[in-house]
């Protein structure tokens, strides 16, 4: 038994089905081509891309600088003893606010009371001796005139009277010194401010020549902020100011704290150092800030932002118009001759709001492309229109009508 005779018959039965499938595929291909041709015929208007531009003019822009800084107490004073002795009492609470002249410590005054009493007694003795020598000299004077006594005796008596008066002055000065030392046994606060911890306790021996202070007082309102700026940047700034391209700005300073938050008060630049730190190559600028809440503490690291000058020839360019090339250079497109997009490298130093501050690379009156930048290529013809011009949308043409026309 063999199956070969049946093959032609099976092929004849399957032939109409194959022809049917081929015809269907051909019909679909024809419809697709017709549809593609139909759509290709209505691709819409062709031509250069439409871009929006602005005509730039120079304006006065503050040149902002952000630098690292350290906070410093407005006033700082070390409390030191001016006489030696044992601390008897302490009159303040560590970390509290103290007033200038307030008594902080008492040193045992016994020795100084005795010294003052002794000086007072010496003064009384010297005064009595001076009185006696003065009376003796007064008595010798008429006798010497009558030559009843030798003139030398009168001269000696007068000299002794003057020596006694000098001894009175010395004793009085010694008494004043003893009283001053006695007053120094009460150690006062030299300034008003917040006092730190006490380095000596009651019963400790202190001396007038010791190196360690008893405590430290710091005035924290207002507060100083020392800003470090490189001497190279300062030199560049001074040259710009000298050339007339920039003018001095106000001395307002703002701070950013260590946690990244903004300090709520504005400070003022007080002065700039007149010498460069040889170790760091920087110059110190000192600013003063109000600190009523005590938020700033000495030694904190902060970021200071301020305007040192105003550039009178800078341009403000919307940020979407500025791009970066692979090397990181800032670039913009301007409308060049023949309505071609010309790419230019610019110097974008900082951002202010929604604009970049461009200090070089552009000229007054340039048409900078700010809309449609993404579809713009260098030296490509474009259709420039003023920025924010409403886009004209053409109505698609219906069969048998021209684009933009209506039936008659």
Describe this structure as you would to a colleague.
By secondary structure, the protein is α+β, with helices and mostly antiparallel strands. The chain is built from four helices and 20 strands. Helix 2 runs antiparallel to helix 3. The two termini are 80 Å apart.
The parts where pLDDT drops under 50 for at least 5 residues are 1-44, 402-408
- Outline the biggest β-sheet: 6 strands, antiparallel, barrel
- Helicity range of the residues? 25-40%
- Write the element-wise H/E pattern from the N-terminal end onward: HEEEEEHHEEEEHEEEEEEEEEEE
Whole-number mean pLDDT: 80
Strands of the widest sheet, in order across it, are: 2-9-13-12-11-14
Q: Which descriptors would you attach to this protein?
A:
408 residues, alpha+beta, 4-stranded antiparallel sheet, 29% helix, 34% strand, elongated, disordered N terminus
Quick recap of the structure?
This protein is of the alpha+beta class and 408 residues long.
């Amino acid at each position: 038994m063999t199956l070969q005779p049946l093959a032609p018959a099976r092929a004849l039965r399957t032939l109409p089905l194959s022809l049917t499938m081929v015809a269907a595929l051909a019909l679909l291909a024809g419809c697709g081509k017709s549809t593609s041709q139909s759509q290709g015929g209505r691709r819409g208007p062709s031509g250069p891309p439409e871009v929006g531009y602005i005509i730039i003019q120079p304006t006065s822009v503050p040149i902002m600088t952000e630098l690292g800084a350290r906070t410093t107490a407005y006033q700082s004073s070390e409390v030191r003893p001016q006489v030696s002795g044992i601390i008897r009492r302490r009159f303040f609470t560590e970390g509290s606010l103290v007033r200038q002249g307030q008594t902080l410590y008492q040193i045992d005054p016994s020795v100084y009371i005795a010294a003052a009493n002794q000086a007072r007694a010496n003064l009384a003795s010297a005064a009595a001796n001076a009185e006696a020598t003065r009376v003796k000299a007064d008595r010798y004077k008429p006798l010497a005139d009558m030559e009843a006594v030798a003139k030398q005796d009168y001269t000696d008596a007068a000299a002794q009277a003057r020596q006694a008066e000098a001894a009175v002055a010395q004793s009085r000065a010694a008494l004043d010194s003893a009283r001053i030392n006695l007053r120094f046994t009460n150690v006062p606060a030299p300034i008003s401010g917040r006092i730190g911890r006490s380095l000596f306790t009651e019963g400790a021996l202190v001396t007038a020549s010791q190196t360690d202070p008893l405590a430290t007082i710091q005035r924290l309102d207002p507060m100083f902020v020392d800003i470090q700026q490189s001497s190279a940047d300062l030199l560049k700034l001074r040259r710009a100011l000298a050339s007339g391209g920039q003018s001095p700005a106000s001395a307002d300073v703002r701070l950013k704290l260590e946690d990244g938050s903004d300090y709520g008060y504005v400070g003022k630049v007080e002065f700039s150092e007149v010498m460069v730190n040889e170790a760091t190559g920087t110059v110190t600028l000192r600013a003063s800030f109000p600190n009523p809440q005590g938020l700033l503490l000495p030694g904190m690291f902060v970021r200071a932002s301020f305007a040192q000058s105003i550039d009178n020839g800078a341009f403000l360019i919307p940020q979407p118009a500025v791009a970066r090339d692979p090397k990181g250079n800032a670039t913009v497109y301007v409308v060049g001759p023949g309505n071609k997009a010309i790419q230019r490298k610019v110097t974008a130093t900082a951002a202010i709001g929604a604009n970049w501050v461009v200090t070089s690379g552009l000229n007054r009156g340039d048409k900078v492309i700010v809309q449609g930048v993404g579809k713009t290529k260098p030296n490509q013809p474009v259709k420039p229109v003023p920025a924010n011009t409403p886009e004209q949308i053409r109505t698609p043409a219906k069969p048998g009508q021209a684009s933009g026309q209506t039936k008659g």
